[in-house]
Task: structure prediction
Amino acid sequence: MLPKTTLDFLEKLQENNNREWFAENKKKFDAEQKKIKTFFNEIGTSLGKIDSIERIQIFRIYRDVRFSKNKLPYKNHFSVGFSRTKPMLRGGYYLHIEPGASFVGGGFWEPNKEDLFRIRKEIELDASELRQIINQSTFKKYFGTLEGEELKTAPRDFDKMHPDIYLIRKKQFLVTRSFLDKEVLSTEFKDEVVETCKAMRPFFDYMSDVLSTNLNGESIY
Result:
């Protein structure tokens, strides 16, 4: 389980997001980073037993401020991504640890234009399987609804009166589940993260089938 010191450090960092404070507390950061890396890798091992994980990417706490209006030098969270094995398995899991704002997420954040078009064409042809997935009780229990940015109107060459236009308009296809701090610090948190990722699988498997085939259902690999 994660120790309370991890959230305590992040809370203090939020209040003192500057290089001087960070330098003075570098040993504390190193200690917390070691704990969080161990925790993230343990989750990766557990996910590897239920899915094919290609890569574990633990994100750096240092922010790239070169092209950002926000010049704070450090992120106020720890985070990690777990990528499924491409090209056949699409989607990725994401875990974000932040005081008062921790969550597990996943999906398709910035699909390239070819993938986005392929998804939209599949929905246009027949969205019944996707609708069934996002309306399942398990999906609703963990995620509520399918999230993501969307266009205000229909994409070019798509019928704005299509019955599933609310799905076709999407530019992102995301799911998230938030956790309270007391849940993050509980002994069940690791298992809950894995179970949450497991609940994404029907959605991921659907998208993988779509993105690895053409509109005739033939494999493109």
